[in-house]
Prior knowledge:
5 domains, Arc Repressor Mutant, subunit A, alpha+beta, disordered N terminus, 570 residues
Amino acid sequence: MAETPGIELHSDAISINLPCLDPPPFTAHTEIESLGYLILRRSADFDEISRELNLPLATVTNCILENIAQDRIMANALFEDSRKGLQFLSLRLSRITMPLGLESIPEPRPEEILRVILGLLAIYQEVSYNKLKRIVSRIFDPELPDHILIRDLSLLAFSFGQKLILDDSMIVRFQGESGVFNISEEEIGNISPDINLTILLGALSESQSSSVQDIASKMGLKPNEQIRAQIICAIGLLYLRGTIQLAVDEEENLTDIHVLQERGYDDMPLTDNERIMLGMLSSQDKTSVKDLAKILGLSREKARAELYRLFSRGQLNLEMTRGEEIFIRGLPDLPPILQVDKLSDRERIIFGSITALENPRIDELATSLQIEEIEFYRQFYNLIGSGLLKAKIARSQVLSISRPEAQPPPQLEELKDSKLSRMVSLLEQAGESINIDSLAESIGSICLEIRMILFLLVGWGYYPHGRMINRIFIKGGKLRQLSGRIFCTSCGKEYDASSDSCPNCSQRREFCNICKIILSSEEGTAICPHCEAKYHLSHLTSWLKIREECPYCRKALKEVEIKTENRSRI
């Protein structure tokens, strides 16, 4: 049955029922603060609201009664029957009928302090008013007046309704759930210039439990009271936003931490430091923050922060000990970020030297190329982190290396360096291998420069499978052409290189175990009698002049023992 407009008098209260009007929008904070205080406390008299909010009594009384009349809220007016007659005691909130939300608050809103209070409440859920005031004061103003904090709590109560209450014991209780608050990461990051949200998310991703003090240390911040308060606030807002889930124990330690919204690797480009770190992590089974700092040229605190920035992207499975050793369990498989033709000449030289030499030592290679060791490491890890190389190293020794299929190199006439062009011409006139000293003498240069040019050619992709053994450069096949046609080693028919087998005789493609390119019927094929591994004949004979063992099975092998496809010995 519909309620009858009017006033009903009961023994202990008067219910006010008025016709539902179309209320105008809110125009003043005082109106919302007055209503919010009643929602926050559930029961209050006009004097209390006026006193706590530091507002005139007449203003508060008019605000409350007008909004009851406009059907925004329903309240019971409590009276006491005394000698002087009925005396008003307080209003008790019975129902909220108006839409709630911060968007209903007119501009300008005190956004920053509201977010801070909300973030703190999200973490604590239940906190004394005095403790809340103490923490907020550390962030904003040591002399923060009570009525300012009460007004902000009232505004939040207006937004969240009965999920927020300040009880008679002055305990603030908040029932906030993950994902209930629409706020951007940029707005959360504006809380403090000291808090980098990306690094914070990375620090949270690294472990499922942590103290706020430890998180501050991971971020490279001094965990004073103000910083701790700002971190708690930011974490609380991330929780309400739905970015993370967590629990808080009685000692304010964060437990069961799960980052739900990862940035990924497509949302924003990797920084140089992130590429270097990815390369360093993916090429080793373990490292340390100390080693990261050394390679990046940063302090340990900043290197740790960079690592947590990478953590925030997700897909990293790392374990970090208290001694800051890092054990690598799993990393994302990223597509190449850079292309060979985008590299600098120095990067191409490093790229070529790593792939042309067999298991080189980084320190010795850097010295031979007259490149500072740390710079060589940095460029090397950048190539790996950019997806151009896959490698495993241990104690400066490269254990394994592989590179993706190189893009066709530029035409010779496009090369601006005449010495480079002359080098390619001499290499093409030579056989499968050539002595570096002979090249240096022919071009009129020193061996160091020749080595660098050779590495540059390998890095460019002219000889993508070129190998350098001592002072001999093995080309690893003919000068790479732009054509994608090859010849079958069985029937001799030409077919497209993109096919895995010959369409004429179904013979699968076979590769030389030294240069890793396709064996051709035009070139002699050598076979190890121990393991049947196949090679270009000229490559294996050049190899055996330096080391008399099979490159694949490592068993002793002499040139006279090599088998070929068509005869048993040579």
